[in-house]
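ok new one. same drill as before - structure tokens go in, u give me an amino acid for every spot. 304 of them this time. try not to just spam alanines like last time pls lmao
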């Protein structure tokens, strides 16, 4: 492999922000767990649900890299890992091409996913509309004058698309129905996704204010945002924790995933002690890994 190709691959990996993909992976594991419990799990369908979900996350990450840079939000004052365009590793034109191809791949994976899903044609058409809306949301978080990520609406859209659409939509693909208890998972996972975005906005709130990016932190204030972060994680734990009470059959292993909650509690305890904005960045990895561990244990709890 030539030095140039190696450099481009490294830049692409930097742009898609691997640590953020843990949330998409966790989402797919959670919905696969529900389908497994209900006897509706299909391996090939799971693979394309995973590919579609991750490709949509990559669309969002590449769009954020491109449009945050164009708006001046990615500058030398920004805390956290350096973005790809910010570092000068590739041109804006290259980033646009990557974004276009990632959209194409998400569409292709999504269509194959719907082809494999055991649902009727009119239901597939409805889910195609949801898929297109997901792509729009992934791009317009930062794109355009009315980018919702710059208008303090990021957490709302994340809750909708990672929580409600993500969890309930994927369960529906496997089973053709959703139960009331599935909403517990949807709201819980939506809160977890919101906590990640809120942590990001807490870290960047000073720089965001300087470049005119208004987030929820600027609307409700720093201390209220910190309180909200803790509440989101606590509510996520509680809602996910009562899920077995709504299952027909439970055993001791049904509660195995409770072990993962200790990872989330650890994040809360570390978060409470934070005084410097730069330290918020240290929690992304343990939070992402904590969600992933809980999701994997949840899968095992439904398997065993």
């Amino acid at each position: 492999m030539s030095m140039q190709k190696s450099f481009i691959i490294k830049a692409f990996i930097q742009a898609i922000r691997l640590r953020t993909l843990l949330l998409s992976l966790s989402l797919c594991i959670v919905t696969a767990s529900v389908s497994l419990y209900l006897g509706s799990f299909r391996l090939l369908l799971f693979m394309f649900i995973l590919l579609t979900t991750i490709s949509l996350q990559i669309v969002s990450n590449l769009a954020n890299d491109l449009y945050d840079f164009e708006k001046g939000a990615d500058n030398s004052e920004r805390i956290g890992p350096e973005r790809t365009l910010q570092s000068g590793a590739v041109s804006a034109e290259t980033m646009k091409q990557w974004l276009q191809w990632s959209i194409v791949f998400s569409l292709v994976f999504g269509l194959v996913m719907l082809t494999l899903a055991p649902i009727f044609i009119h239901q597939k058409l409805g889910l195609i509309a949801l898929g297109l809306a997901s792509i729009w949301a992934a791009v317009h978080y930062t794109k355009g004058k009315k980018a919702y990520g710059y208008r303090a609406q990021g957490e709302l859209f994340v809750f909708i698309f990672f929580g409600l659409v993500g969890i309930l939509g994927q369960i529906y693909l496997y089973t053709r129905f959703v139960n009331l208890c599935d909403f517990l998972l949807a709201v819980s996972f939506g809160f977890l996704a919101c906590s990640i975005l809120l942590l990001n906005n807490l870290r960047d709130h000073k720089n965001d204010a300087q470049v005119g990016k208004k987030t929820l932190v600027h609307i409700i204030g720093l201390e209220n945002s910190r309180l909200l972060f803790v509440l989101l994680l606590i509510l996520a734990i509680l809602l996910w924790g009562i899920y077995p009470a709504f299952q027909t059959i439970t055993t001791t292993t049904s509660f195995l995933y409770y072990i993962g909650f200790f990872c989330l509690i650890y994040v809360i305890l570390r978060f409470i002690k934070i005084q410097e904005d730069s330290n918020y960045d240290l929690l992304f990895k343990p939070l992402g890994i904590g969600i992933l561990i809980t999701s994997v244990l949840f899968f095992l709890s439904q398997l065993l």
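Residues 21-78+88-303 form one domain. and btw The chain has 13 helices and no strands.
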